[in-house]
Design a protein that fits this description.
Radius of gyration: 21 Å
Number of helices: 20
Strand content: under 5%
Structural class: mainly alpha
Mean pLDDT: 83
Order of helices and strands: HHHHHHHHHHHHHHHHHHHH
Helix content: over 70%
Shape: globular
Distance between the termini: 52 Å
Low-confidence stretches: 1-13
Length: 432
């Protein structure tokens, strides 16, 4: 099929960038199915393998540590070798590690495999954000980010299906099955993804549209991390990731325990509740990404549009404190759903701000640094939340903390950047 055929009137090519977004959405969904399956199967594995809570804690710590350490390294590799090769290699590795979980039966075996799983999965967001920067004009990036990021919520919901696989065929086959799904995705990725300038599926009109607002194409460059840290634009992004990413870890890892112990509900038997909460998160991710792009399309400056899209989630997040204190279970679930939706709306715009503030040729490194700081915050929260809950006997203080981090982060963004969302001049770094 030649290019003239593909660019015929009415052909799908004028919207091919959304096919790329769909591929990133699928990869993110698979990523979260693979990572969350262990949490879902925890009860079964504790019985089958005689795990203690400490054993499970070390296994999860191994994943979180790898997920915190490696995004920065992988971001550099993505900038060097490109999105197509890097994300494919990462998905092969994390799918293989998911399969390997079905082949080990010792705590140390799970620690090693989950660590390697965390290494590979740390590449997903730096690669996906870089792909969005390549394939979308600035006004559509937050929406595209919100769409692919909503795969995190679908992945969590789908992961509960591993219980049925484990009960029907054994826990080993649950891990093997979800690992195999990733190799199916590779077929579509190999066919569907290229740089927009090299893709046979992109019309000249769409290519011109994609390039709008992106500036002149520039060759990739390599910058040391210490050099990136000298740009003042990177610090509010890093601080926001450090403060607010752990809130998502909190909901991901501690919400089932909260529903079971403090609300008297067994989340394993209440899939509808979990599904409702993460459906809200998916909607928030998409709407939050759409909103800032909508404002930019209406003539708003980029900084003002991002702030407006971040303000509403920041204002709504403290309602999670009300969720903890209300006696109405229905209101509690509704407000937690609103909190997860608000976080994902926030996350879509924070991720996109990295591509606003830095050119695409270093976005993998920038997002990798952000993922590292977010992972470090998540590690810190895991230990702090556990000690706080053990000390107080409930999660009240952690809910209060989770409700305040987004307003604080937005204030830091404003204090640091004000309305200046001017992209960093990477040829002339300035002191912080």
């Amino acid at each position: 099929m030649n290019r003239s055929t593909l660019t015929a009137p009415g052909a799908f090519v004028n919207r091919y960038r959304w096919v790329i977004c769909a591929l990133l959405f699928a990869a993110t969904t698979i990523n979260y199915v693979d990572r969350n399956s262990l949490s879902v199967l925890k009860t079964i594995l504790e019985k089958e393998l005689s795990w203690s809570e400490v054993d499970y804690g070390w296994i999860q710590f191994a994943f979180t540590a790898a997920y915190a350490i490696f995004p920065t390294i992988l971001g550099r590799l993505i900038d060097r070798y490109g999105v197509k090769v890097s994300l494919a290699a990462a998905l092969v590795m994390w799918s293989s590690m998911s399969i390997a979980l079905g082949l080990v039966n010792t705590v140390m075996g799970f620690v090693v495999v989950r660590f390697l799983l965390g290494v590979a999965e740390a590449a997903n967001f730096p690669a996906s954000i870089k792909a969005v920067a390549m394939w979308f004009p600035q006004k559509e990036r937050a929406l595209a980010t919100g769409l692919f990021n909503s795969g995190t919520n679908l992945g969590v919901m789908i992961s509960f299906g591993t219980v049925w696989l484990a009960e029907s065929f054994g826990w080993q086959w649950a891990f093997v099955t979800i690992g195999l799904i990733g190799f199916v995705w590779l077929i579509f990725w190999k066919w569907g993804f290229d740089r927009p300038e090299e893709s046979p599926h992109v019309s000249p009109e769409e290519l011109d549209y994609i390039r709008s607002g992106q500036g002149k194409p520039v060759e990739s460059i390599r910058l040391p991390w210490t050099t990136l840290l000298r740009f003042r634009q990177i610090w509010p992004f890093l601080i926001a990731k450090f403060l607010t990413d752990p809130v998502w870890f909190f909901y991901l890892y501690w919400l089932p325990s909260y529903l079971a112990k403090e609300r008297g509900r067994d989340p394993m038997k209440s899939a509808l509740i979990i599904g409702l909460i993460y459906t809200g998160a998916a909607v928030g991710s998409i709407v939050g990404g759409w909103f800032s792009g909508f404002l930019i399309g209406r003539g708003w400056r980029v900084g003002a549009a991002r702030y407006a899209a971040m303000l509403l989630p920041a204002v709504l997040m403290p309602l999670s404190i009300v969720a903890y204190n209300t006696t109405s279970f229905a209101l509690c679930v509704a407000l937690i759903s609103l909190a997860t939706a608000s976080h994902q709306a926030w996350s879509a715009n924070v991720f996109t701000s990295a591509t606003d503030l830095f050119p695409a040729r270093v976005s993998g490194s920038v997002v990798g640094l952000g993922a590292t700081t977010g992972g470090l915050g998540g590690m810190f929260l895991t230990l702090l939340a556990a000690m706080t809950i053990q000390w107080t006997g409930n999660q009240k203080l952690v809910f209060i903390w989770a409700g305040l981090m987004h307003p604080l982060s937005l204030f830091i963004y404003w204090l640091w950047l004000r309305t200046d969302f001017t992209p960093a001049d990477i040829d002339a770094p300035k002191d912080v």
